[in-house]
């Protein structure tokens, strides 16, 4: 994981130290590096305790946060670097490693917050698989395949989107920055770490790095179509996983060729030909509101009067 950064300076023991860079989204949440030398095996202090607490919250196997930089902490740091393609400090933690760990912690916390928001936003929605006849009934002819306006919130669309954010580019949009001068999918701008979820069940057939797409996951669906989720900061689903609607795919990022944090969502048919993602979503992830009980007094059957015997 190579994090997007901006330059800041760290003050170590009252002296101006080296200039390093940290993520603009999490700069305020990263505690200052504690000293002039790297934290390493054998160290014992409150900074090690803070480091251990962060690694434990990230899911690394350290029995207790006791401030002692022992074998468990060494293994956890080494594993963190390996999983994030970062070997700057080996098994010790210098200023850059410290930043990487605490930025990752803030990203995870942001992901948890966005997942809760996603669940709350879709709690009252019912996902439906629509066949062409149903689509023709529910979707006005002029709206079939129509691209949403840029700047529209994904919440406001009548079909589910894999992430909560703002539409920043649409299918077939012209532009010099895209191969063939046309955009092959829909871009949804969202903060780094925002949760991406499946809107149609499918099997993960690819989970890795793919040139301009960056960190990419491809889902294959029962009808032979596939959906692509690109530029992620982290992949959560793994190749071979079968995802249900609502399962986590990954986290929004800016990997690969991109100008900022967003999800590139693309769909393809059974012949691996790119297709309009709006049409794909309209016929597979349409939002159907639950039927409401009628409150019209005229529709209610009046009770028959009770006749008492005399």
UniProtKB/TrEMBL annotation:
<dbReference type="Pfam" id="PF01551">
    <property type="entry name" value="Peptidase_M23"/>
</dbReference>
<dbReference type="InterPro" id="IPR036366">
    <property type="entry name" value="PGBDSf"/>
</dbReference>
<dbReference type="InterPro" id="IPR050570">
    <property type="entry name" value="Cell_wall_metabolism_enzyme"/>
</dbReference>
<feature type="domain" description="M23ase beta-sheet core">
    <location>
        <begin position="182"/>
        <end position="277"/>
    </location>
</feature>
<dbReference type="Pfam" id="PF01471">
    <property type="entry name" value="PG_binding_1"/>
</dbReference>
<feature type="region of interest" description="Disordered">
    <location>
        <begin position="289"/>
        <end position="310"/>
    </location>
</feature>
<dbReference type="InterPro" id="IPR036365">
    <property type="entry name" value="PGBD-like_sf"/>
</dbReference>
<protein>
    <submittedName>
        <fullName>Unannotated protein</fullName>
    </submittedName>
</protein>
<feature type="domain" description="Peptidoglycan binding-like">
    <location>
        <begin position="45"/>
        <end position="80"/>
    </location>
</feature>
<keyword id="KW-0175">Coiled coil</keyword>
<feature type="coiled-coil region">
    <location>
        <begin position="104"/>
        <end position="131"/>
    </location>
</feature>
<dbReference type="InterPro" id="IPR011055">
    <property type="entry name" value="Dup_hybrid_motif"/>
</dbReference>
<dbReference type="GO" id="GO:0004222">
    <property type="term" value="F:metalloendopeptidase activity"/>
</dbReference>
<dbReference type="InterPro" id="IPR016047">
    <property type="entry name" value="M23ase_b-sheet_dom"/>
</dbReference>
<dbReference type="InterPro" id="IPR002477">
    <property type="entry name" value="Peptidoglycan-bd-like"/>
</dbReference>
